[in-house]
Amino acid sequence: MDKRTYGMIAAVLAIVVVAFLISAKPADDIMTQEGKTTVVNTQQLGQKVKGYMGATPVKIYIQKNKIEKIEPLANRETPKYFAKAKTLLKQYEGKSVTKATKTEVDGVSGATLSSDALKKNVQLGLEYYKEHK
Questions:
Q1: CB pairs under 8 A, 24+ apart, for 56-61?
Q2: 18 in any annotated domain
Q3: Closest by Cα among 48, 56, 46, 47 to 83
Q4: Can you name the residues that pair with 34 across neighbouring β-strands?
Q5: Cα separation of 107 and 11, whole Å?
Q6: Residue 59 maps to which CATH number?
Q7: What is the pTM of this model?
Q8: pLDDT digits (tens, 9 = 90+) for 44-77
Q9: Can you give the residue range of the structural domain that contains 45?
Q10: Most buried among 34, 35, 81, 82, by the most CB within 10 A?
Q11: Cα 37 to Cα 87: distance, rounded to the nearest angstrom
């Protein structure tokens, strides 16, 4: 092989290594700190949790073991029905993590699949928080 071929092989290998390093996300992306608030992002945890049209990840904001708020992240759900479903997230606010994991939150009529997926994502996020805090 000539120098040019070795150079091409080296370049391809370098690109593969860089791509691998970029794609390998550490678990720390799931739970981060924003000041005194812990934020749990269920984008990776709930990849297999599907609503009507796909994944329904959330960010859970926790301070002093209490849920401050829960924000839905980008998803492919039907906006009209997802707007109904995401109202259930308010039912978790102000509760302790322990109480929230035991709470039976009612789904939203007309948006059952989206509601169930949101609840499952919240549960996954809260369980992750309890195990890794």
A1: 56/82, 56/114, 56/117, 56/118, 56/121, 57/121, 58/89, 58/118, 58/121, 58/122, 58/125, 60/92, 60/122, 60/125, 60/126, 60/129, 61/34, 61/37
A2: no
A3: 56
A4: 37
A5: 53
A6: 3.90.1010
A7: 0.78
A8: 999 999 999 999 999 999 999 999 999 999 999 9
A9: 26-132
A10: 82
A11: 22
Please provide the size of the chain in residues.
133
- Note whether residue 107 is domain-resident: yes
C-alpha 58/C-alpha 71 separation (Å) is 5
Whole-angstrom distance, CA of residue 68 vs CA of residue 34: 12
Q: How many domains does the chain have?
A: 1
Q: Locate 115 and state its tokens.
A: 């509601």
Query: Residue holding tokens 């073991």?
Result: 65
φ, ψ (nearest 5 deg) of residue 55 = -65, 150
Instruction: Please name the helix (run of DSSP H) or strand (run of DSSP E) that holds residue 40, with its range, or none.
Output: strand 37-41
In a domain, 31, yes or no: yes
Query: What are φ and ψ of residue 43, in 5° steps?
Result: -55, -45
Structure tokens at 80: 């009209």
Give residue-wise pLDDT tens across range 8-30: 777 777 786 666 655 555 556 89
